Every structure is written in C-alpha cells, then in structure tokens.
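Task: sequence design from structure.
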C-alpha cells in the first residue's frame, strides 16, 4: 500500500505540471477593446459649482474631416455620426437643415424668441470642423455589428472656445460585414485615424499657459540686474584674480613670472602680483 502511494505522488505532480503548461499556452491574447483602450487614453471630466472641466487630459485627437455634430457636454442626448468608406454620414445634418427651414417659416409668421447662448443651451449644436482638437471619452467595440464607437469631447482650450462648452459627439466607425472579427488593432486604428488622427500637438491644451509662463519668466529675467563686471587691478594676488575670474584655462610658470591664460584675457604676475593684463 505504501509503495502504491509513492507512485501516485509523481503522477499527480506530472498532471499538475501539464495543466500549468496548457494554461500558459492557451492564455488569451488582449482583446481589440483592450488594445484600443491602451492606444487611446480616455479623458476624465468633472463638474462642480463653476461648471464642467477637464480633470485629466486624454489622448489629443485632431478631426480630419467635417460632418460631426456636437452638443454641450451637459446635454442629456448626444448626436451620432457614422464613418464608413472614408465618408462621414450624419443624419443630424439633414435634420438640422430641415429644422432651420421650418424655424425660418415659423419666425415669418410669429415672433421668435432670442437665440439662446450656445454655452448655456443644452440643445445647442456645433458642427466640428477639420482641425478641431478633441479627446476620446469612451470606446466600445461591437464585433457582432462590425462597429467601433468612440465618444469624443472637445478640447476647448486647444480650440480657443470661450466660454467653454466641451461639446461632445458620438462617432461610429462602420466596418465591412464580418471584417472586424479578423481585423488587427493596427488596421482599426488606421481607419479611426482617417477621421480622428492622434494630434502631433501633444499637450496643446496647456500650450497657451506654457507660453504665458515663458513670457513671464523672460520678463522676470529681463528685470534682474546684470552682474557687476569683475575688475583686475595691478598688484592683485593670484588668489584675488582667481576669486574674480575663476580658474584659468592655462598657467605658465617662469619662476618669478607667472602667466594666467583665460578665454579672452591673459594676466601676468611678477612675484605673485599682477604686473600686466592683456
């Protein structure tokens, strides 16, 4: 019985080792969702009594084509644009054009209220233009629908939007049927980049602040008094000269005569005292 027990122990250890090896071999690769999340850092937004603000900046993106309609960040609903085959499709644009025509007709018959401020009206819309900077706020991959949806938020400091509204929009990237399941993360990122390219102006949101700080620093530097020029006089000792000019580049020792050679100056000493300066 004792011998059978000793035989079973190695068998169990071997089975555990095989199981561990199989587990390593079959470790799951990162999903497309995880790979995109690593590529695009999401912006973190916050709000207090003073309004909405960016708590932590995300990956800065530049819009390459027009057609995306945004609404203020505090709006409950969000507009959606679809990007397919290199073209932006937005039903909101047609809807807005129809609404404007109806509005003009209505205003011709009735007195219209004043146009609300886009910064405070939740229903106000903004048409993003090429070159505008935005942050990704949310990314969802739907392999069954062959779509990648990205919620974007405007970088108002980059776009010099004042007062800030942090307009947001939902962009859906539509891929060919059955292709998203086979696509690599690089291929998906290339498609996204046709419309939302990663901006080369990293940190653009703080560019103006940095320029102001640089100008302020230059102003303070200009106000600082310049250092008094050092005077070398006849009779000064070698220690006094080194205290004023620093250590020389070369030292020539000719007995009672010594020569200190600096970058643009040569000082001659006789018996340890300055006798000549050239």
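Answer:
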């Amino acid at each position: 019985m004792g011998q059978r027990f000793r035989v079973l122990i190695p068998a169990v250890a071997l089975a555990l080792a095989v199981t561990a090896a199989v587990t390593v071999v079959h470790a799951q690769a990162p999903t497309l969702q995880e790979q995109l999340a690593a590529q695009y850092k999401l912006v973190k937004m916050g709000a207090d009594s003073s309004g909405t603000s960016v708590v932590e900046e995300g990956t800065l993106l530049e819009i390459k084509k027009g057609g995306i309609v945004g609404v203020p960040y505090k709006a409950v609903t969000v507009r959606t644009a679809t990007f397919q085959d290199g073209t932006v499709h937005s039903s909101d644009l047609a809807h807005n054009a129809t609404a404007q025509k109806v509005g003009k007709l209505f205003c011709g018959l009735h007195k219209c209220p004043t146009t609300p401020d886009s910064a405070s009206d939740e229903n106000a819309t903004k048409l993003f233009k090429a070159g505008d900077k935005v942050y990704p706020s949310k990314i969802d991959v739907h392999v069954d629908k062959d779509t990648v949806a990205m919620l974007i938020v405007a970088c108002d400091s980059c776009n010099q939007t004042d007062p800030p509204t942090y307009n947001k929009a939902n962009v859906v990237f539509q891929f060919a049927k059955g292709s998203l399941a086979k696509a690599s993360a690089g291929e998906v990122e290339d498609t996204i980049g046709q419309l939302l390219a990663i901006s080369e102006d990293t940190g653009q949101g703080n560019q103006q602040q940095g320029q102001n700080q640089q100008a302020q620093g230059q102003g303070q530097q200009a106000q600082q008094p310049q250092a008094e020029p050092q005077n070398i006089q006849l009779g000064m000792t070698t220690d006094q000269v080194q205290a004023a000019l620093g250590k020389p580049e070369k030292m020539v020792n000719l007995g009672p005569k010594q020569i200190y050679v600096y970058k643009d100056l040569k000082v001659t000493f006789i018996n340890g005292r300055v006798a000549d300066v050239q």
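The mean pLDDT is 78.
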